[in-house]
Specification:
It is a single chain. Helix content is 31%, strand content 27%. By secondary structure, it is α+β, with helices and mostly antiparallel strands. The strands form 3 sheets. It has a 5-stranded mixed β-barrel with strand order 1-2-5-3-4. The protein has a 4-stranded antiparallel beta sheet with strand order 9-10-11-12. The radius of gyration is 27 Å and the shape is elongated.
Length: 277
C-alpha cells in the first residue's frame, strides 16, 4: 500500500495514504485529511508499507493536489499567524504567564489555530484559550513542547554548517547522555557538545555505534602500553587520524593504528608456555 510522508509548517511530519491513486512524487504540495477538516503540506518521500496498522500513528488520506488558490490561501494564513503570535504574546504578558511562545500554525481550512509554547512547569492557560477563541472564532489549541521540538519548529543550522538534523530526517527524539560523549573522547564543555536547543547534540547518538566499533581496535585510555621507548600510559585516542598518544616519564609518543594492529597480530602469534608441575 502506498504511504507518503508529508511535511507541514515547522517541520511537522505525518504519514498519509494515497487511496485516490494520485500520481504523487516528492515535492508535490497536496491537500490532506486532518483530524477535523483539511490541511496543506509538501510530500517528502514515498514508503511501501504492507500493514499500515503497525504504524504508530493511524494514516489519514491524501485528498488532492493543491491549486494556486490553495497556495495563496496558505500564504494568507501564514500572515495571519504572525499577527496571532503577536496578539497571543501580548495576552501572555498581561497575565504574567510563565510560558515562552514559540510558533503559531493555522490549519489550511482555518478550522484550527495552534499555539506552540515552552514552559518550565505546568501553566494554567484556560482563560487565555477562552480569550483567543473569542478573538479568532475558531478552535484553539495551546500545545506545550520541549526545547528540542522548539529548535525543530524554528529551524536553522548546526555547528557543522548543515541544516538541523531534527528538521530534516530525525522524527523521534531519543535520550542522550554525557556518557556517550565520554565514549567518543569529546570535551564535556557544554558549548562544544550542545545543539541550538541547548541539549546534547543528536549526532552523538547516531555516531555512537561507529565509535564503539572503531574504538575496539585501540587500547583503552588509562591502560598501560609498551612501545619501543618503554612502557607508558595511553593518554589520548585520535579516532579520525588513527593514532594514540602514550605518555612516558620523558614525554609523549604517538603510535599509529597500523602499528597497533601489527603488534596485536604479533602478540597473538606468540605461543603461550604451559607451566609443568
Amino acid at each position: 500500500m502506498e504511504i507518503y510522508l508529508v511535511e507541514f509548517k515547522g517541520s511537522r511530519k505525518q504519514y498519509f495514504l494515497n487511496l485516490e491513486g494520485l500520481q504523487i512524487k516528492p515535492g508535490d504540495k497536496v491537500i490532506v485529511q486532518a483530524e477535523r477538516g483539511e490541511d496543506l503540506g509538501r510530500v517528502t518521500k514515498k514508503l511501501q508499507v504492507e500493514d499500515p496498522s503497525k504504524l504508530i500513528e493511524k494514516p489519514l488520506n491524501i485528498l488532492r493536489f493543491s491549486t494556486p488558490e490553495d497556495l495563496q490561501r496558505m500564504k494568507e494564513n501564514e500572515e495571519r499567524g504572525v499577527k496571532a503570535l503577536e496578539e497571543c504574546q501580548r495576552l501572555i504578558h498581561e497575565r504574567n504567564l510563565e510560558m515562552k511562545l514559540v510558533d503559531v500554525e493555522y490549519q489550511f481550512d482555518g478550522s484550527k489555530l495552534t499555539f506552540f509554547f515552552t514552559a518550565e512547569k505546568r501553566v494554567d492557560f484556560r482563560e487565555l484559550v477562552k480569550e483567543l477563541a473569542s478573538i479568532y472564532r475558531t478552535r484553539i489549541e495551546l500545545r506545550q513542547i520541549g526545547v528540542r521540538d522548539e529548535a525543530r519548529r524554528l529551524g536553522g543550522h548546526g555547528c557543522c554548517g548543515l541544516q538541523l538534523c531534527c528538521t530534516t530526517f530525525i522524527r523521534e527524539f531519543s535520550p542522550i547522555t554525557t556518557q556517550i560523549a565520554k565514549e567518543q573522547n569529546l570535551s564535556l564543555n557544554p558549548s562544544k557538545i550542545s545543539g541550538n536547543c541547548g541539549r546534547l547534540l543528536c549526532c552523538l547518538l547516531y555516531e555512537k555505534e561507529t565509535y564503539e566499533r572503531g574504538l575496539e581496535l585501540y587500547p583503552k585510555i588509562g591502560s598501560k602500553y609498551q612501545t619501543e621507548k618503554g612502557e607508558g600510559v595511553v593518554e589520548k585516542i585520535n579516532f579520525f587520524k588513527e593514532y594514540i598518544v602514550v605518555k612516558h616519564e620523558e614525554g609523549e609518543e604517538k603510535v599509529g593504528l597500523v602499528e597497533i594492529k601489527k603488534r596485536l597480530r604479533k602478540a597473538k602469534r606468540v605461543p603461550v608456555r604451559s607451566e609443568k608441575n
